[in-house]
Amino acid sequence: MPVDTLPDLRHSPVPGEPAPPQPDPRRWLALAVIAIAQLMIVLDVSIVNIALPDAGADLGISAANIQWVVTAYTLTFGGLLLLGGRVSDIIGRKRAFLIGLLGFAAASGLGGIAPNQELLFGARALQGVFAALLAPAALSLLALAFTEPRERARAFGVFGAVSGGGAAIGLILGGTLTEFASWRWTLLVNVPIAVATALAAVVLVRESRAEGDRHFDVPGVLLSTAGLASLVYGFSRAAEAGAGWSDPLTLTLLGAAAVLLVGFVLHERRAAHPLLPLRIVLERNRGGSYLVFLLVGAGLFSMFLFLTFYFQETLGYTPLESGFAFLPFSGGIIVGAGLVSQVLPRVGPRPLIVGGLALAVAGMLWLTQIGVTSSFVTSVLPAELAMSFGMAMVFVSASSTALLGVDEHDAGVASATLTTAQQIGGSLGLALLNTFFASAVADRMAADPTGGTEAAMVHGYHVAFVWAAAFLGIALLIGAASISARRSDLPAPEMALAA
């Protein structure tokens, strides 16, 4: 037999064993689709924040109620994430992704044409419902589509850049739309983007779903949803003017959250078909990653809030100028994520997480140098660049370790746990730091009534940034102690299952 007619056995499966899964040939195009969906989710809070004054004036929303434009979204999003993750596992991640996109588009359109505050609040809550389905499905699809270490690192690099830079991009886009069009376009812009993304996903994204156990843990759903919703609302209530941490409703919500979430954990230990198998969060690398994301959310979300106030209230920037002031942060995240994705397979996640959090702490402390007449170039820009590169290192690396070794069956709920940690962390951080900020301003005004309101506000920003740096410092210690994965562990064999 001629040599060139011999069968090629190099890639033949061993008799009796299944052929190894082949990578999706359209995975890079699918990544673009997933990244667009993730960007839409991440920027949807910040893009609307810029438009709040205009929306409030147009619809006659009181100062006490305007926060519901944000809270209605975060409440349903944070409360339903675990359920959304399990639903995506069972009905199929692609199907959940498509339902989430189209539902998000419909809710955005409803909010954009809302004639009154009630419909706007309801539309924002509905956005959160579909975002809770979309977010875990997106991360699961990404994790299951990329199994080769270097490719997977690059894919997570893109995802990390989008996750980290999305809030700043939202501020720029929101300022532009509000200033040159209408506040309504901060919501309406989602409609064509979501529909186009869904159409592309039909062709480019490969379906995957959990096999085997496909039961719903109804008690777990009720306990986790009610507990997380109470927790998010309790934090939001504590940050409201005139309420605070001693408010009876705040205490009731937080007490109910504690009871419900403890009950959830106790139930999950005994449940035959748990919503959140405790093995997901108790594994050292994954658990550490979730805690890192929680604390990073607490520090980073507040940075955006207080710098936005500083730019507009102290330095006199317009909404659009404030948005562009965050552009270096977005650029640093994008560039940094690209570099980190190249380095991650070589050095492993732990050095990057620890080093990135150290940079972020340094950047946050640098912001304590801002003053009433500070220069953006010397007082803010270095801090933004340090934090952006640091966060790129953390987002790319911790997103990968958060899904390390997770069975395909649990990919959706593991992804949802990661997003839940960041969402709850952001709510906790905003509530705590807003309280510290208000107390610091009041104390400075009482101690130095002739110093002026602007100086007192800047002092309050300093206090908030110190506490934000403390959150990031605790995250650094947790990352150093808990992340033990080596470069050879990425990706874990379990994640190399067929998507």
UniProtKB/TrEMBL annotation:
The chain crosses the membrane at residues 28-52, 64-84, 96-114, 126-146, 158-177, 183-204, 216-236, 248-267, 288-311, 323-340, 352-373, 385-406, 418-441, 461-485. Residues 30-487 form the Major facilitator superfamily (MFS) profile domain. This is Drug resistance transporter, EmrB/QacA subfamily. It holds the Pfam family MFS_1. PROSITE patterns: MFS, SUGAR_TRANSPORT_1. It is a multi-pass membrane protein. One of its GO terms (cellular component) is plasma membrane. Residues 1-23 are annotated as: Disordered. It comes from Blastococcus aggregatus. It is found in: Cell membrane. The keyword Transport applies. Keywords: Cell membrane, Membrane, Transmembrane, Transmembrane helix, Transport. PANTHER family: BLR6921 PROTEIN, MAJOR FACILITATOR SUPERFAMILY MULTIDRUG TRANSPORTER MFSC. GO terms for molecular function: transmembrane transporter activity.
